[in-house]
Amino acid sequence: MNYGACDLLYTAYEMKLNFEKHKFIINIINLIELSFLRNFGAQSIVIAVKKDKLMYCFFCGEKNCKEKVLDMYQVPVCDECIKKPISLHYKKKNLNLIYPTQTLINPPSFGKKNEVCYLCRKSFITDEIFENNGFSVSVCDECIKKPDINMKLSNEYFLPMWRRRGQIII
Ligand SMILES: [Zn+2]
Ligand SMILES: [Zn+2]
């Protein structure tokens, strides 16, 4: 089992630090977030794997992963999927629990709007509430449902946003 935490901004918010009023606090928190102190962050991440002689591959779902692969990876990976770049995110030495982008503070909500999918270039309308589904790029419903795409977006395009509780976003 491996675990860690991140998101000191949320911790600061819970401690009543007013980073909306004192914007320099955000810069300080973003710097601390890069150190081991991010373990005091509010978001916990746990990866727990039940070991067996033969396990299902985390990426393709085939039951063909030997226990030994867990010496190098956080999750079971088969010989084929090890060649995919996405597997690098799950290498033990690469475990780096930081967001790929800094948190956006109180961004204006855009709700429903016409967008072009970043991946397939198809036009679509974003969701009124979920907007870009928490990613830094607009991706259509069809693309987002594909497991390999969803995994890539979650690892590389996740965009944390902070908005005040109870704020009306529609
Ligand atoms: Zn696989
Ligand atoms: Zn698409």
Following the backbone from N to C, one meets helices and strands in this order, namely EHHEEEEEEHHE
Strand residues, percent: 15-25%
Strand segment tally: 8
Sequence stretches where pLDDT stays below 50 over 5 or more residues: none
Number of contiguous helices: 4
End-to-end Cα distance, whole Å, is 40 Å
| Helix share bin | 10-25%
Shape: flat
Using only C-alpha atoms, the radius of gyration works out to 19 Å
Count of discrete domains: 3
By helix and strand content, what is the structural category? alpha+beta
Q: Which ligands occur here?
A: zinc ion
- Mean pLDDT level: 88
For the biggest β-sheet, the strand order reads 1-2
Largest sheet: 2 strands, antiparallel
Descriptive report:
The protein is α+β, with helices and mostly antiparallel strands and 170 residues long. The chain folds into 3 domains: 1-48, no CATH class; 50-98, no CATH class; 99-170, no CATH class. The protein has 4 helices and 8 strands. It has helices at 8-14, 24-32, 141-144, 147-156; strands spanning 2-6, 43-47, 54-56, 63-66, 104-105, 114-116, 123-125, 161-162. The protein has a two-stranded antiparallel sheet with strand order 1-2. Strand 3 and strand 4 (63-66) form a beta hairpin. The radius of gyration is 19 Å and the shape is flat. The mean pLDDT is 88. Bound molecules: zinc ion (2 copies). One zinc ion (ZN) binds at residues 57, 59-60, 62, 78, 80-81. One zinc ion is lined by residues 57, 59-60, 62, 78, 80-81.
What topology does this entry show?
Elements: E1 2-6, H1 8-14, H2 24-32, E2 43-47, E3 54-56, E4 63-66, E5 104-105, E6 114-116, E7 123-125, H3 141-144, H4 147-156, E8 161-162
Parallel strand pairs: 5-8
Antiparallel strand pairs: 1-2, 3-4, 6-7
The chain binds zinc ion (2 copies).
